[in-house]
Amino acid sequence: MTVPGFDNPLTWILAIPLASAGLLAVLPNWRLASWVNVAVSVVTFAASVSLFHYRPEPTRLLFIDDFNVYLVALTAFVGMTTSVFSAAYIARETEAERLSSVHLRFYHSMYQAFLFTMLLALTANNTGVMWVAVEAATLTTVLMVSLYRSREAIEAAWKYFILCSVGIGLALFGTTLVYLAAQPVMGEGADAMAWTLLVQKAAGFQPDLLNLGFVFVLVGYGTKVGLAPLHAWLPDAHAEGPTPISAVLSGLLLNVALYALLRFKMIIASNPDTLAPGPLMIMMGLTSLFVAAFMLFRRGDIKRLFAYSSIEHMGVITFAFGMGGAVANFAGLMHMTMHSLTKSAVFFAVGIITQNAGTKRINEISGLTETTPALGWAFVVAVLAIAGMPPMGVFMSEFLVVSSTFARQPLLALPLIVGLLLSFAALLWRLQGMAFGPPPAHPHPAHGRPGGWWGAMAYAPMWAHLVLVLVAGLYLPPLLAQWFQNVAGLLG
Amino acid sequence: MLTALSYDLAHLIGATVLMAGFALLYQRRLFAVLNTFSFQALALAAAAAWQAHIQHAPHLYFTAAIALVFKAMIVPFALHWLVERLGIHRTVETALSIGWTMIIGVALVALSILLVLPVTAHSAALTRESLALAMSVVLLGMLMMITRRNAVTQVVGFMALENGLILAAVSAKGMPLVVEISVAFSVLVAMTLFGIFFFRIRERFDSLDLNYIETFRGDR
């Protein structure tokens, strides 16, 4: 297999996080390490932006097309902003003596390793390499979820490890079956696993094997997307890990797993004799939406609340791609982006709130707009955005999903709207108490509330994301819209 | 070239892996589970080596070596050591009686044969039957993970599932990256074993029994 050379930006996008994962593992000073983490994430993002100007030719190992280029940029962007937030978050955690410097060395190293695996999964031109990358992403996040070593954190990490390992195991079986389906047409070897070649010749693959393979891939990668009823790991993993990790898990990892699923859907869609993947995805999407919507009402833990909201949004996105067609695919792509940006902003806010309050219990958090107005109002804006309030971008994409469903399958639009309204109500109800309730009588003596530099670093990523989501909701640049349309066409 | 003997041997070894998968289900003692798993890994190593021979694919010998050294020796040994060191209960705790587990296991094998054989009608005979065997092993591994409570047996169940996946991958003629995939799995398992020891789960819970761990499940 040929390794792309150094004139290829993809090499840099992958080599930088990988090399820094090694470097950060041996860097003893955590404060320096958190700055290095920010610096390399910025460089990775810059390299990913260069892909828009110069698109390298696909190699046997890596490739870039219209679809994955925007996910690479999004991943590198959220990876960058989260690294900034993480620096502020880590500083306070260390002052509160919840994390030691050994933990932090490990944490920073794993953060970059995690970015590397996600970027590799997105750019791999081989179903097997992609699988290895997703598996490695699971491993790095399991280690980060268990960072606090508390009873709950270890339980969450164990559950996450067991469920997702089985999930990716099944995905590998599906990958093998798809290889076998492609083998008679493509011949033996790496060609039968290359995305770029598979899509061109998918029409001649054995349809029965493809069907069986797709079901395994759907269940396997679907576990990682957090689709109900395979979502059990997700709330625990989000709730117990460090908050910057919750942000990247929700904002990025779920997208990567969904990307893997969509690539396989592209293959099966190009074969006329296979079953339609749409109904399966619609069903799983709606189930996730409803399970999450009802679960939202009963959450007592703020991070768990937004973890269930991630399941809800992943359900909506899967539903949209299941509907298929130009408008629904467009809406799904846009919703992936908007959810990614908004949900990580929500988790940034939640991170500061839980550090201030010293608890994750929703009951014990109240009156945020009075005690810390800047944070409180930012939280209000972020939660309204994720709940789908206009004029934010999430509303736009949800509106598109609903309207395209109405146009084609009006009956399916009904449960979709009910699910969306239920989760909207749940989030608003929870928000009300936290943001506008009476402030607590005995506030928690917070260690070093963010101020000065650290404060700016904690708040800036959140505002940056919210401004982007607002702008996208009000005005989507024609260039971007055109390009979402192209990709929507690719997805079939 | 492929002779009738090479088919028969490949199927015999594949069936041995499946038999070991069944044997895992009816063990009542933890050390017996580890020994049975070790035997299954040994059979997998033989299957990979035989496939390497008949497919003229030397890289599969690496897969066989990984199965032999890592899975059949190091992992069972490490788990053995962990069980002794951490003082874990040595009996297998079942969530479902062994009799029922076996009946469901037979049904799962029937299911995978009924599912795989028709859809692979156009594939090579060697691949067809091995795939059906591999899928049965995968499903039995899942069954073990579901019906056994102890964390060590869950890890063994996962590795049995993984043995099925590797069996499928080596049987798929000319499939690239099989070695990389088995290395990736091994790293995953190694990190987990390391994690069990490192986190000292024993110190935090009264047992590795997941029932203790899962008291926090649900609304919090």
What attributes characterize this protein structure?
heterodimer, A: 492 residues, mainly alpha, 19 helices, 78% helix, 0% strand, B: 220 residues, 9 helices
List the helices and strands and how they pair.
The complex is a heterodimer of chains A (492) and B (220).
Chain A: H1 9-26, H2 30-53, H3 66-95, H4 101-123, H5 127-145, H6 151-186, H7 195-201, H8 207-225, H9 233-240, H10 243-269, H11 277-297, H12 302-323, H13 326-357, H14 368-371, H15 373-387, H16 393-408, H17 410-436, H18 452-474, H19 478-491
Helix pairs in contact in A: 1-2, 1-4, 2-3, 2-4, 3-4, 3-10, 3-13, 3-18, 4-5, 4-10, 5-6, 5-10, 6-8, 6-9, 8-10, 9-10, 9-12, 10-12, 10-13, 11-12, 11-17, 12-13, 12-17, 13-15, 13-16, 13-18, 13-19, 15-17, 15-18, 16-17, 16-18
Chain B: H1 4-25, H2 30-55, H3 59-86, H4 98-119, H5 125-147, H6 151-171, H7 178-199, H8 201-204, H9 210-213
Structure description:
- The complex is a heterodimer of chains A (492) and B (220).
- Chain A is 78% helix and 0% strand.
- Chain A has 492 residues and is mostly helical.
- The relative contact order of chain A is 0.10.
- With 220 residues, chain B is mainly α.
- Chain B has 9 helices and no strands.
- Chain B has helices at residues 4-25, 30-55, 59-86, 98-119, 125-147, 151-171, 178-199, 201-204, 210-213.
- The N and C termini of chain B lie far apart (62 Å).
- Mean pLDDT of chain B is 83; it is low at 202-208 and 212-220.
